[in-house]
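hey
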């Protein structure tokens, strides 16, 4: 009798406990997009589960970092659609079904573009930014919009009407900016990949501070259409990722090129010198 009552209790608990964390046989926090796609191919995980895992992490941990402004409430629905397409047709891109976080000065249809200012919380764009259009065409899922320094004014931190973004490795440290929310989201595994914008150092600095790869593409090599720029003559969107290979892949798709454009073309640095500054403490 006790066993039956316990089973009934567990059954009803499973129904009402809608905030229960998603279970998975893999650890997405230690995997890049190529490994995630391999796990899908091996039937270890679905795109829906991948998306739910990232959303669970946001709900559980982002209160410590304040890296996210808006969540895409249709992300699960979009992931389910990816699963349906994958079963029938396979995938046409390595970004297919991959959740991506986008800096909140980049237009995503259905989500407000606030640039970190609550006064713009009802600023809903009529279209996707050009780079977002390219990503969605490849099946990527925009999981949400990232916090940033308000109107991209500061590089030393990411402080906005929505709070101060904390460093992913030590919350007493700065995330830097202005793309701090995008960088911290990727470092904390709230999304597979991230996109920021860079005027002087706004992709590269927060990427470095959060142990990531951040690329500032050549100006005008990435479309600025649908982006609320700080400086029209210098701003460019750029990828923020955990690995260099992911960075090259994301950048090529943002530019509307073949996703293997930079991976296959690996001779461009031959004969070049790469300089770096070594900090002296």
């Amino acid at each position: 009798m006790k066993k039956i009552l316990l089973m009934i209790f567990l059954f009803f608990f499973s129904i009402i406990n809608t905030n229960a964390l998603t279970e998975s046989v893999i650890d997405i926090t230690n995997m890049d997009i190529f490994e995630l796609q391999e796990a899908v191919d091996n039937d270890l995980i679905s795109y829906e589960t991948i998306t739910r895992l990232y959303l669970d992490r946001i709900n559980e941990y982002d209160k410590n970092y304040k890296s996210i402004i808006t969540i895409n409430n249709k992300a699960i629905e979009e992931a389910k659609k990816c699963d349906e397409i994958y079963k029938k047709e396979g995938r046409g891109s390595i970004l297919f079904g991959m959740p991506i976080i986008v800096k909140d000065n980049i237009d995503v249809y259905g989500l407000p573009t606030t640039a970190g200012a609550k006064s713009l919380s009802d600023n809903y764009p009529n279209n996707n930014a050009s780079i977002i259009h390219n990503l969605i065409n490849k099946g990527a899922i925009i999981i949400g919009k990232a916090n940033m320094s308000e109107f991209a004014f500061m590089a030393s931190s990411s402080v906005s009407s929505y709070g101060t973004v904390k460093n992913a490795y030590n919350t007493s440290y700065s995330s830097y900016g202005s793309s701090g929310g995008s960088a911290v989201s990727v470092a904390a595994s709230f999304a597979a990949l991230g996109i920021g914008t860079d005027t002087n150092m706004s992709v590269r600095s927060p990427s470095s501070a959060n142990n990531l790869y951040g690329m500032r593409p050549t100006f005008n090599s990435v479309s600025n259409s649908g982006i609320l720029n700080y400086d029209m003559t210098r701003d460019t969107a750029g990828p923020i990722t955990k690995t260099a290979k992911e960075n090259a892949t994301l950048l090529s798709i943002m530019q509307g090129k073949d996703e293997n454009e930079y991976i296959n073309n690996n001779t461009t640095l031959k004969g070049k010198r790469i300089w770096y500054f070594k900090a002296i403490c």
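The longest helix spans residues 2-16. The longest strand covers residues 141-146.
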